[in-house]
Amino acid sequence: MEMVIALLILVFTMIIGIPIPFVFLATVIYLIFSLGYDPSFLIPYGFSKLNNMVLLAIPLFVMAGSIMSTGGIAKRIVEFAELFIGRIKGGMGLVTIIACAFFGAMSGSAAAALTSIGKIMLPRMEQSGYSKGFATSLISSASVLGLLIPPSALIILYAWIGNQSVLASFLATVVPGIILMIFLSIINTIYMKKRHIEKVENSEEILLSRGKKFQKRTIAASPGLLMPFIVLGSIYGGIMTPTEAAAVSVIYAIPVGIWFYRELNLKGLSEALVEAATTTGVLMVMLYAIMILSRIIIMENVPNTLMELLLKITDNPLLLMLIINLFLIIIGMLMDDVSAVLLSTPLLLPIVVSLGVDPIHFAAIIGVNLGLGLLTPPTAPLLYLGGRLSKAQIKDLLGPTMVMILFAWIPTLLITTYIPEVALFLPELLLGK
Questions:
Q1: Are 393 and 335 in contact (CB under 8 A)?
Q2: How far apart, in whole angstroms, are the C-alpha atoms of residue 219 and residue 37?
Q3: Rounded to an integer, what distance in angstroms lies between the CA atom of residue 188 and that of residue 195?
Q4: What is the C-alpha to C-alpha distance for residues 46 and 48, in angstroms, rounded to an integer?
Q5: Are 284 and 277 in contact (CB under 8 A)?
Q6: pLDDT for 361-377, tens place per residue?
Q7: pTM exceeds cut of 0.85
Q8: Rounded to whole angstroms, how far apart are CA atoms 392 and 355?
């Protein structure tokens, strides 16, 4: 009963707008005293779990994403992608999707991808014939590729809480991310064909890009395009750990933004440092509370109790996974992605493992689910952020967003859930996992 009350406290305090770290702390304090646990045991336990170098990668990737956003790297990636697909009908949408994937491979942040690429692409998409609502919905959905295309702060948290390999968890979300890109590209192409727009985006500009302009854009984009290969290549090649690669991405992005692109100044750099410090402080408080909460969940045998309840509904593993997915979607609708992964991982991982689901496979399932939650009302933080960037009305965003949820997100989720090879192919190929 106490666990049910704690969950209600958690959800209610989030809904009324209490800061998330205090929400988790309040829930933990209630459980400690209501269940009669000794605080002198749980408090040191929380601190001991935070002593992990993997967590340092998260603020470093946040810092790198902010530096790349203000340092001009995102802009050059967009201009380079336009050289190849900007001329075709619907090309601006394809450029947006690809640019978000590239930016995600450097920053690991959906919000950073949406802010950086959105500021550049939203005006261009409107000029090319896209409605404001569809353009905003498309770039909001595409920005989630920042969570699925590694490195990803969300997946780092999952791997840390679930005691899984960070590299294997990274690789598990790559193919689902590519599948989502394909579905979004198909929706974009169908949309532009139905618009019956004859002009081709930036056709005159792209034609003039041949020769010297092509060479100029390629050279300008090279430092930005090289960054994912440096970061990911060093991780998967065993040269660096994710934390070391995150530090290298910061060290690499600073001189590129200051001296090569000449768009990063001391103000932008200081803002990136403040953002990383703020994110780190908030995250550490949340992680401290969730580690204590996860310990209480295990001691109270909550996963087994939930499993018994699910088995009373059905003992079919396919239906059980469908129920778990629905639970994750609801969690994603009510919470931000970090809070959702912190809560759902210790709760659901033992259950899915008992069903025979590989923990690395579950990394992909939880990544797609929580990415979907970022776009699904009532919370939908990325959708609202996109609306603020484009100044689009929420009513104009709901229709296109539902189309993308039904015909891109849900198919991706079902494929990822029921075809384990989608998630496990790359980990098995590259790591033998």
A1: no
A2: 61
A3: 11
A4: 6
A5: no
A6: 999 999 999 899 889 87
A7: no
A8: 44
